[in-house]
Design goal:
The complex is a heterodimer of chains A (about 325) and B (about 290). Chain A has 15 helices and two strands. By secondary structure, chain A is mainly alpha-helical. In chain A, strands 1-2 form a two-stranded antiparallel sheet. The radius of gyration of chain A is 19 Å and the shape is globular. In chain B, α2 packs parallel to α4. Chain B has about 290 residues and is mainly alpha-helical. The longest helix of chain B has about 35 residues. A two-stranded antiparallel sheet of chain B has the order 1-2. The chains are: A mainly alpha (about 325), B mainly alpha (about 290). Chains A and B meet through α5, α12 and α14 of A and α4, α9 and α11 of B.
Chain lengths: ~325, ~290
């Protein structure tokens, strides 16, 4: 199974890197950029929301930290790439703070606390006009100057590949199994000596760093950002929905989820203009009621069940099922 | 002296707003605090209540201060239906699912309304709006807010009695205490939960109707109230309906004072900071007996 995943990953990466040989249109590059960007964000979210089972609905905090960090550090005179690095550090710092408070809470309170933190940051970005420019927005430096859209597309592919590799590593490592144990039953995990607080925090720090890179890329593509665009609840929701739709706690889930959600969103944008979030709502309800383990989670479960009928002794892969 | 009157005025205004918050928060306290249904669509239900009252006013000329009754009934039936159709199938499963389902529901309501009525801002015009009651030279209170304060107060007290002193309320609290023992005592779990959800949603809808004369109406108007109502429930203490009511008044006053001293744009941020402080320092809230 796992080897197949790695094979799919490598094959996907090679194919994605070859895309610029055929694609010429800027529009196609931008749509593909969104798909890979949100695949990467979904994979990052998946570490916390899927493997560790902590429903974060405030990832816009890290996304926004990436975008705003890049903009503000470079406004202060830094070159773009070092500014991006600092922005990632800023997001990790936020994650340490947010995780430190929120991880003491369980269930809906955790989700609510993450939303509250992200909202506080959004309001700060809106209201600290002297620092952030407020609702007027702020300029973001271009990370790439040549072959603009193609470069951003390739960067999003690389980011998704990095996030995918990290997820492959996590899903096979002791750390990953700790996370899954915490997801299945935190009290039991604690009782067998897993330092749940530290594991969850590490997962969040990695997740925040990747999310901030995504936010930086996104902001840099637009060259200009406002708070309601990059620190919004909509971004938090979109990241979570991508992972849930594909299958939280699965390797390929966020990739599949991003392809479906972003394609659907693109189609609905033309159909419904401003009301395109409708499709997010419909997808959420369909997933919860009919495919609670997400598309990939449900498919692998079905495959496994079928295989289990033929070969009853097939090794049970404990913990690799999707969340709850 | 002027600063004193400014503060007093802000506190009074805060109480007037706070009564409506209290109504919204009590609805959420019934749904989330007592029934443990995580309702991320609460603000969207409020928005639906506003639109229902608005359409009633535009279509038949019924004043919102009477129209809210019809809105309450519509929202109750709607909430009742939503419980049976969507929430019942996932009852007893993880909070995860309830959060995502109600989140999705909220998105559908908000964007569905936007699709139907557009994203434009609407406002109704009734003669009452410009009426102010003066109290001394310094203090003046806006009539629509005073009326909604009175209505919210009556409804809040009624809701409190419903939950604490009727058979339905007792059944709801029994389910909250032990969802396995309650049916053994002859309680029809799903009917009680559906009715409670309907009532909680109707409270939000009624508050929306009462807000209509003094607020701009647009599809996203309810968004801020979802989080605010969670803030009230946590601040008041889980499972405490009176706690949520007091928390609503507190929130109203805090926001009003924040607007006075720091500016309106920080009011919402202060709400969330209070929320995070309560969650991390005193998770049982002001009145709550249950731990978060």
């Amino acid at each position: 199974m796992r080897r197949a995943h790695v094979l799919i990953g490598v094959l996907g990466l090679v194919l994605s890197l070859l895309v610029p040989l055929v694609v010429r249109s800027d529009y196609t590059f931008q749509v593909l950029f969104r798909i890979f960007l949100f695949a990467a964000l979904g994979l990052a979210w998946n570490l916390v929301g899927g493997y560790a089972g902590q429903l974060s609905l405030g990832h816009a905090a890290y996304f926004g930290a990436g975008a705003y960090g890049l903009a503000l550090f470079s406004k202060a005179g830094m070159p773009a790439w070092p500014a991006l690095l600092l922005a990632v550090l800023l997001a990790v710092l936020f994650a340490a703070l947010i995780g430190g408070v929120s991880f003491r809470l369980r269930g809906p309170y955790f989700a609510l606390a993450t939303i509250a933190f992200a909202e506080v940051l959004r309001l700060m970005a809106k209201n600290l006009v002297g620092l952030t420019g407020g609702d007027v927005g702020v300029q973001v430096p271009a990370l790439f100057t040549q072959a603009f859209n193609r470069s951003f597309y390739l960067a999003s592919v690389v980011l998704a590949a990095v996030a995918f590799s990290i997820t492959v590593w996590v899903s096979r490592s002791r750390f990953g199994y700790y996370l899954m144990a915490i997801r299945e039953d935190e009290d039991t995990a604690l009782s067998v000596g897993i330092n749940a607080a530290r594991c969850k925090l590490w997962a969040l720090l990695i997740s925040a760093a990747l999310t901030a890179l995504g936010g930086g890329l996104y902001g840099s593509l637009f060259l200009y950002i406002v708070p309601d665009q990059v620190v919004s609840i909509t971004i938090s929701n979109e990241i979570a929905i991508v992972a849930m739709l594909g299958g939280a706690g699965t390797l390929l889930g966020p990739l599949v989820g991003s392809v479906i959600l972003e394609t659907a969103a693109e189609l609905f944008k033309n159909l419904f203009q401003e009301a395109h979030l409708l499709i997010y709502g419909v997808l959420l309800i369909v997933v919860v009621l009919f495919v609670p383990e997400g598309i990939v989670g449900t498919l692998t479960n079905r495959l496994r069940r079928r295989r289990a009928v033929v070969v009853p002794a097939v090794k049970a892969q404990a913990g690799s099922t999707a969340s709850e | 002296m002027d600063t004193f009157f400014a503060a007093l005025q802000a506190i009074l205004n805060g109480l007037l707003t706070g009564a409506l918050y209290a109504l919204i928060g009590m609805g959420m306290a019934l749904i989330f605090g007592v029934m443990r249904i995580v309702n991320f669509a609460h603000g969207a239900f409020l928005m639906l209540g506003m639109y229902a009252t608005y359409l009633l006013f535009q279509g038949t000329g019924i004043n919102p201060y009477f129209g809210f009754l019809a809105t309450g009934i519509i929202l109750f039936l709607f909430g009742y239906g939503v419980y049976w159709a969507l929430l019942r199938p996932i009852r007893g499963e993880s909070d995860f699912k309830q959060i995502l389902l109600t989140l999705g529901l909220g998105l559908i309501f908000t964007d569905g309304i936007q699709l139907l009525f557009g994203a434009d801002y609407h406002q109704i015009n009734i003669p009452l709006l410009s009426t102010n009651l003066h109290w001394g030279a310094q203090i003046s209170l806006n009539a629509p807010w005073l009326i909604s304060f009175g209505i919210a107060l009556v409804l809040g007290v009624a809701l409190y009695f419903l939950v604490m002193h009727t058979k339905l309320g007792r059944a709801a609290r029994a389910i909250a205490q032990n969802r396995y023992a309650a049916p053994l005592m002859g309680i029809n779990i799903h009917r009680v939960q559906a009715v409670s959800f309907g009532i909680g949603v109707a409270a939000a809808g009624v508050a929306g109707g009462l807000l209509l004369p003094v607020f701009y109406l647009y599809p996203g108007v309810g968004d801020q109230f979802t989080l605010k109502s969670f803030v009230m429930v946590v601040l008041g203490g889980m499972g405490s309906i009176q706690g949520a009511a007091v928390a609503g008044l507190v929130l109203g006053v805090v926001e009003s004072l924040t607007s006075l001293y720091w500016g309106n744009q920080w009011a919402l941020a202060v709400d969330f900071v209070i929320f995070l402080l309560v969650l991390s320092l005193r998770p049982s809230g002001m009145f709550g007996s249950q731990r978060v």
